[in-house]
Amino acid sequence: MTNTSNQVESAQQDHPSIPSLSDVLPSFRLDGHVTIVTGGSGGLAHTLVQALLAQGSEVALLDLSVERLEYTARELQEFIKANKLPKLNVSTWPCDIGDAAIVDEVVRAIPLKHNGIVPDKLVHTAGYCQNTPALDYDARQAELLVRVNLMGSMYICQSMSRLLMQRSQRRRSVSSEDDSAAEACPQLSNVSYVLIGSMSGCIVNNPQPQVAYNMAKAGVIHMVKSLACEWARYGIRVNSISPGYIATALTKKVISGSPEGAALQQEWTSRVPMGRMADPREFVGAMLYLLSSSASSYTTGENLVIDGGYTCW
Ligand SMILES: NC(=O)c1ccc[n+]([C@@H]2O[C@H](COP(=O)([O-])OP(=O)(O)OC[C@H]3O[C@@H](n4cnc5c(N)ncnc54)[C@H](O)[C@@H]3O)[C@@H](O)[C@H]2O)c1
User: Fold this and answer.
1) Ligand 1 mean position to 46 CA, how many Å?
2) Which of 32, 136, 237, 280 has the fewest CB atoms within 10 Å, i.e. is most exposed?
3) Is 129 helix (H, G, I), strand (E, B) or coil?
4) In the prediction, which pLDDT does 303 show?
5) In which element (H, E) is residue 56 found?
6) How many angstroms separate the alpha carbon of residue 179 from the centre of ligand 1?
């Protein structure tokens, strides 16, 4: 792939040279990469991980329950076999994303199960929602939700970046005669983090009250912009995808968890210009775009709202 400055130069020439197809068409392949997927046993992750494997990425799945992770991994091996994909390593890691020390420990251990490859792609889906009126919200419950949904988003990005930078500095100081130069500014490539935010970070859902979730997701969107600015100089891109209502375990629990569930679903879809909830497959394209170093090489700090038009009304 020709680098971006060369492309700009050739576009400016009077007689531009004929580009090759790989100069024109981006690649969405992820061969040789390890992608960390948090919330790896969740409904949205279920589909996103299948797409990652189909694009050749190994995956490290982080979630709370060992049993659910093991079940997910077995299911994914079936998926690989049924679709005749090449053998790909799927590792599983019980991990509370709201615990910074555990997240760091897990991220450092992942290369040991992936032939030493340091993960440089992230799909962060871990999170949960609570529908509680603000006046009744127990402080500890709200703090816990913010710790998992917001702080967890920062912990996973920090741990990955620290490890990538340490490895890059070590490589440079081994190959460089001048150690002080090697310590200057680690330059990484192809590093991309995709965090699942929510349209709840941009609007207030109605009618269900969910103040802690809404503020945590608004925080995720702005954290993404902050990290994108801090880490652009290292070659790390950070973006978010903010979905509208998706038909997954999270929303099915809300719908079936109360007698008013069906009416609530009706209320939700009536507020979506496209008149329906999303299918998890409808987020695969955005994820692959943001992970691809050729398709989204100039995209960072972006929040892609994919909501069937909900936030337009
Ligand atoms: N489903 C929707 O309508 C919808 C809409 C907008 C945004 N989102 C967001 O998308 C993401 C995925 O949602 P989903 O619908 O797949 O939900 P899900 O409940 O199916 O999956 C979420 C996963 O996160 C895991 N998780 C929760 N707390 C964790 C913790 N402390 N540490 C590690 N893992 C933890 C859960 O065990 C679960 O497997 C979430 O961040 C959610 O907020 C969902």
Assistant:
1) 11
2) 136
3) coil
4) 98
5) none
6) 43
